[in-house]
Sequence to fold (146 residues):
Amino acid sequence: MNEAKYSDNENLRKLLFHLSKKCKLDMERRFLSAKVGITPFQYAALVVLNKQPATLNELARALLIQPPSLVPAVEHLAQTGLIEKSADITDRRKIQLTVTPKGKELLKKKLFDESGDKLNSAFNALEKTKQQQLINLLEELNDNLN
Fold:
C-alpha cells in the first residue's frame, strides 16, 4: 500500500511540475509576442502592487519568494517607469513600491487574445462537471499545503 501511495504522490509531483512548466512557457511566449517589455513574473508583481503599495519584503511575501530574488524585477519595473520607489512615511529606512500611472495603464490593457491561452483551451475542453471537480480538488490540495 505504501508503494502505491508513493507512486501516486510521485506521479502527482511529476504532473504538477510538467503542468506548471508548460503554463510558464506558454505565458512567457505570450508576453514576448505581446511586446510589453516585462515578464509574467514582473507583471505579477505589478498586479500585487496595484492592489496596495508595499515594501520589497511585503511584496516578496505576497509572491512567495525571498526578497533578494525580487530585486532585479523591481529594478526593471522602476527603470521602465511602471513603479515608483519612495521612502516609507513611517520608517524612512523602508522603500515603498507604488504603481505609476504608466503601470496602471499597462494593467488596463488586454495583453493578448485569450483564445491563444493553452491552459484555457485545455480546461475548456473538459466537461463542466470535470472543470468544477478539478477546481475543487486543486483548492483543497492548496488549502492542505497551508
Summary: Residues 2-34 form the longest helix (33 residues). Strands lie at 54-55, 83-87, 95-99. The chain has a mean pLDDT of 89. Residues 106 and 144 are 35 Å apart (CA to CA).
